[in-house]
Amino acid sequence: MFLTRLLYASTASEQFKPLDIEDILTKARKNNGKLDITGMLCFSNNYFLQSIESSRANVNELYHKILNDKRHSNITLLDYKEISEREFGNWSMSYVPDTSLTASLNLRFSESSIFNPYKMSGESAHKMMLELRNALHNVT
User: Fold this and answer.
1) Which of the residues 36, 80, 106, 134 has an alpha carbon 20 to 30 A from that of 128?
2) In CATH, which of 3.40.50.970, 3.20.20.370, 3.30.70.100, 3.90.79.10 is domain 3-139?
3) In the predicted model, what is the mean pLDDT of the chain?
4) What is the pTM of this model?
5) CA-CA distances (angstroms) from residue 11 to 35, 36, 57, 59, 139?
6) β-pair partners for 76
């Protein structure tokens, strides 16, 4: 199977509670490791931006679960493509909340310093996530 990367944006639904982010991350880290899924999740201003990498079958299966998760609404596919290598291979699911670092990146890759993944192209969202990954490497 070919490696595949999927990027999507979504909005937290009315069913989403602030503690749900921890539940999402705990389950993702546990289950993704078993399925060789890697990626990054950004969450701020009630918006999610996520990159998922794995085999095409695993990415499709996980995305189907996300589409049926009542904590998300307005799920929008930003990018889906075969890739030659993983870019988030060190993380079963990295997480980036809103920080002072993200404001300048939001402005660099979208029309505003306020995080809104719906106002980014798939390519811009991917590049922003790579910048966040690099910044996290420099912090750790």
Assistant:
1) 36
2) 3.30.70.100
3) 87
4) 0.89
5) 25, 26, 25, 20, 28
6) 9
